[in-house]
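A brief tutorial aside. Many learners find it easier to grasp structure tokens once they have seen a single protein encoded end to end. The record that follows does exactly this for Thioredoxin. Read the sequence first, then the structure, and try to relate runs of similar tokens to stretches of the chain.
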Amino acid sequence: MSGVMAEGVAEVSDADFGFEVLSGDRPVLVEFTAEWCGPCRQLAPVLSEIAREEADRLKVVQLDVDRNPETTVAYGVLSMPTLMVFRGGEPVWQVVGARAKRKLVGELAAAGVL
């Protein structure tokens, strides 16, 4: 496990991305992250809180880009952290960079995710 894992947020990999993210019955927020990423560390507690508070409406997971290049390349992720929401197996929302919890929740609500 990487040093930026958010508490209560599962780590997914190239191997289980399809099952854990693409086949879910609720929207999935994926953070594309890396151990060397400072903003990812800033975002970890925000994601932990959102995962806990919105567990009935949103699944939150992390994917380490260095250990999972297939998924990273497949979705064109170039910067960390990249946050992407998947619904029904398709990416429906994306943003790059760390942000405060209030801003992130507002963006997710505006996108119809929350």
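Self-check: The CA atoms of residues 8 and 74 lie 26 Å apart. If you spotted this yourself, you are ready for the next section.
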